Each structure stands twice: as C-alpha cells, then as structure tokens.
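Field log, afternoon session.

UNIT: design team B
ACTIVITY: writing a sequence onto a fixed backbone
BACKBONE:
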C-alpha cells in the first residue's frame, strides 16, 4: 500500500512550523521536512502517511497555520507516482534524512601519537590533584567566622552572629 503525500504552503516560517507541529500531533503522519522558496517568504511543509491521516493532518495544519499567518496553498496526493520522489525529496528539503555510508576499511594511523596523548593525560592527573587541593583549602577558608576571622571561633559564615566568641551584645564584634 502506497502512502499519501500532504503539502502545506505557508507565508513565513513560523506558520510553517505551527502547521507541521499540529499536523504531526493530530494524526499518524510522518514529517518529511520543509522547503524554503526563493522570494515571497513561502515555506512548504511535506508530510506522508495513510490517506485518511494525511487528510486530517493537512486540515488541522492549515487551521493552525492560518492563526499565525497566511496559508498560500494545500494539497493531498493520495498515491503519488514513484517518479515524483525527485520533486518531493530534493536537496532543498530541510529535515530530510540521508543514508549514511558505512566505512569498512578503517585503519589507525599514528599509533605513537595516540600513546603520547594517553601519557599526557596521565601527566595532567597530578595537576588536577593539585588544583583540587587548592579548591579544598579555599573551601576551608570559607568555613571560618567572617566576622572575626578567628579560626578557633565555632561560628561559620552565614550563621547567627551571637555564636561568634568575639561578639558583644552592646558593641558588636570586637576585632581589636
């Protein structure tokens, strides 16, 4: 069984995206992609699926796109001929998936370079440990009282000031 083709042509990309979104959400169809035309700001949305689903998707997409901007045209082709695929699946169609070529003859070049890079990564481990120790020391400095700066003070930054051993109720913190 051949699939039907649905085409919605809108003015502006926002209307085309709205049409595509609504079409795909409203029926069991596949979005082939969109195509920008040259001039006029026209954007063509292409969908495919069963004829009933494509009809419903095109109707819903047109309604949604009309709320955003103008719909230039719409068309449902029930069983497009196989030679129409060159018109439907063009290089200008954005979102069209291309088949990847498989590589079978893979060779590794510069094995020495790879081992050198592995050694360099190992050398960087010591540097990372030194940086981690510096960060830990910086965190410890944040754990002292920021009011008096005394490392013996049990108060930590952000806690109540009355926990500071140098705090006086009348005068505040005595730093001198």
């Amino acid at each position: 069984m051949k699939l039907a083709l649905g085409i919605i042509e809108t003015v502006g990309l926002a209307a085309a995206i709205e049409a595509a979104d609504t079409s795909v959400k409203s029926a069991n169809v596949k979005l082939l992609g969109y195509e920008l035309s040259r001039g006029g700001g026209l954007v063509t949305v292409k969908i495919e699926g069963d004829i009933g689903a494509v009809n419903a998707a095109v109707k819903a997409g047109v309604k949604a796109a009309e709320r955003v901007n103008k719909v230039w045209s719409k068309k449902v082709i029930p069983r497009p001929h196989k030679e129409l695929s060159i018109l439907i699946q063009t290089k200008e169609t954005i979102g069209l998936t291309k088949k990847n070529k498989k590589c079978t003859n893979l060779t590794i070049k510069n094995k020495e370079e790879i081992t050198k890079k592995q050694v360099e990564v190992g050398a960087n481990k010591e540097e990372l440990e030194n940086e981690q120790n510096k960060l830990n020391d910086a965190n410890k400095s944040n754990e002292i009282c920021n009011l008096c700066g005394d490392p013996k003070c049990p108060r930590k930054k952000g806690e109540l000031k009355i926990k500071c051993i140098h705090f006086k109720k009348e005068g505040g913190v005595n730093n001198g």
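LOG NOTE: The radius of gyration is 33 Å.
NEXT ACTIVITY: expression trials, pending approval
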